[in-house]
């Protein structure tokens, strides 16, 4: 049923008059013009900039060094790179501090990032969660509180640290302040230049597109209860929600190894599943 088709679900009419809906955790198709395309976050030239081929967000990047869907802006400061990876429904924007000498740069005590919002505004919760709001008041993107991590932990060989810390790796919260679309980050200096820190160190504000048909939010595995009567502003619910998000995103989905999954994380299994779907 084309009228019920969206990024994450498909509904078919059965011969007996019933309907069957199939839902995916993340987008399995992307609307482009009047049709649908398979998700593809590979960056390609678009005018004087770069843009992913088919994702849920309107993203464009100035010309960096590109590998697949990863754009690297090398040496934005001595010994510091900026990496931007566009996934199907997520943008990883990571400041990479490569050496102890780079970590001692006073410019890393605090630094600014511009949030490229078009026709909208940015709001920040008390815990650092960011929301991009369109002129109609709808939340279009969200970012959990900024986090930083080093290259320590288990199974670090070949690990893509752009996506997060290794199991057992050191992490720390990042201070945030917002003025208009200027986001100021204050890295934790104990982790940035501590004696036990393993470099590179990564500082990450991560953005998720909001695509749930029913509630307009991005569940990204488990974040919000779709259809909940609670809303942002209910402080007791918000506090509990943020604690749950921090545990699920920061540990359960991305770090904890599950014996039932062959001692892998849910995110690793999910990424493998999506890769197999695209091959199929």
Per-chain topology:
Elements: E1 9-13, E2 19-23, E3 30-32, E4 35-37, E5 40-46, E6 49-54, E7 65-67, E8 70-77, E9 80-86, E10 90-97, H1 100-103, E11 111-114, E12 121-124, E13 130-133, E14 139-143, E15 147-149, E16 171-173, E17 175-179, E18 182-186, H2 189-192, E19 201-204, E20 206-209, H3 235-252, H4 266-279
Antiparallel strand pairs: 1-2, 3-4, 5-6, 7-8, 8-9, 9-10, 10-19, 10-20, 11-18, 12-13, 13-14, 14-20, 15-16, 15-19, 17-18
Any overview of this molecule?
The chain is of the alpha+beta class. The chain has one domain (2-279). 14% of the residues lie in helices and 34% in strands. It has four helices and 20 strands. It has helices at residues 100-103, 189-192, 235-252, 266-279; strands spanning 9-13, 19-23, 30-32, 35-37, 40-46, 49-54, 65-67, 70-77, 80-86, 90-97, 111-114, 121-124, 130-133, 139-143, 147-149, 171-173, 175-179, 182-186, 201-204, 206-209. Strands 7, 8, 9, 10, 12, 13, 14, 15, 16, 19 and 20 form an eleven-stranded antiparallel β-sheet that branches. Strands 11-18-17 form a three-stranded antiparallel β-sheet, with no helix packed on it. Strands 1-2 form a two-stranded antiparallel sheet. Strand 1 and strand 2 (19-23) form a beta hairpin. The relative contact order is 0.12.
